[in-house]
Amino acid sequence: MVYYMLYNDSMNERVDYLTQLLASRLKDMRLKQNITQQTLADMSGLSVKAVQGAEKGECHLSTLVAVLVALGADDLIENLLPEQLPSPVQMTQHGRKKMRARNKAQAKDEDLDW
Fold this sequence. Notes:
Blueprint: H1 2-6, H2 11-32, H3 37-44, H4 48-56, H5 61-70, H6 75-80, H7 88-94, H8 104-111
Helix pairs in contact: 3-4, 3-5
């Protein structure tokens, strides 16, 4: 979000930038712990090619998670995407956690039933 505010680039450019940033930090984390790609692959149950792909920003989400767990950094996932608790208003209106988004026009029409 900060990147978007500073640079008014296209969505693809932002995604590319953030992907490369994440991949670079993943590699830095491995090097800081003095772990080779082969050792990380063994620790995570992945191939060396999968680890190399993660460090280039070209991997599946499950590969990223496996690498983070092997590096002992899986707690960072909670910081990256904390649980989204429903607001008190949502709980009052619906009595349960929201499971999907609605079309804004549809939501506006439904909210006018007073």
